[in-house]
Amino acid sequence: MNPAQRASGKHRIRRHKLPAIALATVLAGGGAFAASQAWAGSDAATGRPVAHAAAAPQRPVSYLGERVMKALHHGKVKGLPSPTASPSGSPSPGSTGFSPRIIGGTSTTITTAPWMVQLWYYDASTGDGWFCGGTLVAPTKVLTAAHCVDGLDWHDNGVVVGGTAAQWNGTNGKAVRVWKQWQHPSFSMDTLQNDIAVLTLDTPLPYTTAKLVDAGDTASYATTNTGTVYGWGQTTSSSSGGISADLRKADLPLVDDSTCKPAMDKITDDPTTPAVESYLVPGKMFCAGKPGTGSETTTVASCHGDSGGPLMVNGRIAGIVSWGSGDCITAGGYDVYTKVATYATDAQAQITAADAPKQNDWSRDGKADLLVRTSSTTGQSYAYLGATMKYRWSAGTGWQYYNKVVQTDLDRDGATDLVMRKSSDGSLYWRHYDLYSYAWVNTKLASGWGTVRQIVAPGDLTGDGNPDLLSVDSAGAVWVYPGKGTGSFGSRFQVGSGLQGLSQLVGHGDFTGDGRPDLVGRTSAGALYLYPGAGGGKFGARRTLSTSGFASANALAAVGDVNGDGKADLLIRFTTGSLYLYPGNGNGTFGAKVQMGTGSFGSAAILG
User: Fold this and answer.
1) Helix, strand and coil percent figures for the chain, each rounded to 5
2) Please, which residues bridge with residue 456 across strands?
3) Please, what sign has the CA dihedral across residues 154, 359, 205, 200?
4) The pLDDT of residue 15
5) What is the DSSP letter of 246?
6) At 5, which helix (H) or strand (E)?
7) Distance CA 158, CA 175 (A)
8) CA 49/CA 548 separation, integer angstroms
9) How far apart are CA 157 and CA 140, in angstroms?
10) Is 399:382 a contact under the CB 8 Å cutoff?
């Protein structure tokens, strides 16, 4: 069936959830909340899969930092609006109309699911508002469903709230803005295939993060497993119901594709029209829960407004709430989830990308910047900004006292830190910005690093969510110093040897697209090698990028995503003084070089 036929409603679909971003209540005359809710769309009207959206009464949304909190009612943050309005047109205090349950679920606390976040969206120009769930997978990264992101400008209109089990009231939890959004490039709102997205936050959230299942994982999807779904979604199958005032969870057994597919095909087919195609796509989607009974009292399921939230299996994110039957309890229906193992590589590439604001991004334009010392006398340094390197921002003087500087974020506060080695005695320092005193602080990390050949801050090598440090000593041994997320490190461990022949070794981010930080090294003879991260701080067999083509190169730098495409890039300076960008393709290769600067870089000491 072609898209035109589907849109005409000839193939009616009653999928389990509307795009879980529910269309919010609109403002009525005089600024009061409307008495009724508007659904994001019905299956009969749209003729497309109905994702897990709830027409939840939308909360006033706020922006922190550059934007002042904006509310739906007189610019103030009010309590939860009731599904029904009082005679005065304003919400009745205490009359929430919420049922104390997800369909058949139970209440839970934020300490049991500290990675759960609320996604609030409100567009003042249209009056549209949406709500979704999400999972904090890194301090500045949230995993959610693509249908929660598609067609919306989360940077301008969205707020993410963490640290609270209660629905946000403007004071509980911590609210931050969205800096950037990514959704799977092949996502289809019509079929809800490839329903996965990652939001990059403006400011890190200080809560425990959750991990995804590994790419290609099959064990997590065994039907002997039980998953737990979390969310603030609708607590009744009625379209007049509201989303939950508190975080809920439900335990759901995983379902075999051979059982779920025919059941969902039956639900999504118009009985008067022969089935032409299936919407349940094994490998991309999977099912969980017992079949719906048609009754709220005997059905256990997620519902509208839970979209984007996780289905946790053995402590990891195995699924993302995606779609299902329109009323959440249809007899024979199941919850349908995005199969995270299928998309783990794509998602991890976004999660580990150094594209958060302030992450090696001094100009806050979403592109990583390069620190360059231009004077060996005064130590004057500049941050060359963005993909063109045409604008520079002064980083001050005094840098002549250091012979190695790399950018990182050891304390995960979203602000770029520096690891610096002093020329005179080899002392290693951590320079970071104290957000409480509004001042830069230098903290000594170690002594005796003067003979260390290479110092690299590639990111999280060990997989614990904290940035690590890597060194190559004078004998060529490779050491990992596991970061604790506080600017300190655990005991080092050796992960390799034989790298004493490298003139430079750099890395910041994922060059191969597997979600792990990688390294690039150059020999004095001009050979260029890629060292792919293998997890646990280890690296796989090196790959040759060039055997001798970089003999005239005299400086390498890797600071993350320089051109803003979400992939880690490489910067190389040659003896001519020209600086080139080699854009990462995200698969272990690099695109054609792009000149970023000419002879002015020849006498500069590139810091990193």
Assistant:
1) 10, 35, 55
2) 470
3) positive
4) 27
5) B
6) helix 3-7
7) 10
8) 54
9) 17
10) no
Q: Count H helices, E strands: the chain? A: 5, 36
CA 349 to chain centre: 9
> Which DSSP helix (H) or strand (E) runs through 553?
strand 553-560
Query: Rounded mean pLDDT of the chain?
Result: 77
How far from each other are the two terminal CA atoms of the chain, in whole angstroms?
Answer: 54
AA identity, residue 356: A
Are 35 and 25 spatial neighbours (Cβ–Cβ below 8 Å)? Answer: no
Task: Identify the pLDDT of residue 286.
Answer: 96
Q: What is the DSSP letter of 483?
A: B
Report the alpha-carbon distance of residue 227 to residue 318 in Å, rounded. Answer: 8
| Rg from Cα positions in the chain | 26
Q: Who contacts 586 (Cβ-Cβ below 8 Å, separation ≥6)?
A: 349, 510, 511, 512, 513, 566, 567
Instruction: Tell me the average pLDDT across 297-316.
Output: 88
Residue 430's beta-bridge partner residues? 419, 443
475-507 exposure pattern, b = at least 16 Cβ within 10 A, e = fewer: eebbbbbbbebebebeeeeebbeebeebbbbbb
* Structure tokens belonging to residue 432: 């970071």
Give the C-alpha separation, 213 to 227, whole Å.
13
* Cβ–Cβ < 8 Å for 99, 105: no
pLDDT in tens, 18-63: 333 332 222 122 222 122 222 222 233 333 344 544 333 333 333 3
- Please tell me the predicted confidence (pLDDT) of residue 269: 63
Query: How far apart are alpha carbons 450 and 446 in whole angstroms?
Result: 11
Reading the block at residue 98, the tokens are 């919420």
What CA–CA distance (Å, rounded) separates 604 from 343? 42
Vertex 372 angle, CA 544 and 352, to 5°: 55
**Active-site residue list:** 147, 195, 307
Q: Is the pTM of this model over 0.70?
A: no
Residues in the chain: 608
Sign of CA dihedral 102, 106, 107, 108: negative
Q: How many Å apart are CA 593 and CA 601, to the nearest integer? A: 16
* 139: confidence class by pLDDT, cuts 50, 70, 90: confident
Q: For 353-380, how does the pLDDT look when each residue is reduced to its tens digit (9 = 90+)? A: 655 544 576 766 667 888 888 878 887 7
The C-alpha atoms of residue 570 and residue 562 are separated, in whole angstroms, by: 8
How far apart (Å, rounded) are the C-alpha atoms in residues 301 and 289? 7
Which one, of 489, 550, 485, 545, lies nearest residue 519 by Cα? 545
Question: Which residue, among 463, 232, 210, has the nearest Cα to 313 in the 3D structure?
Answer: 210
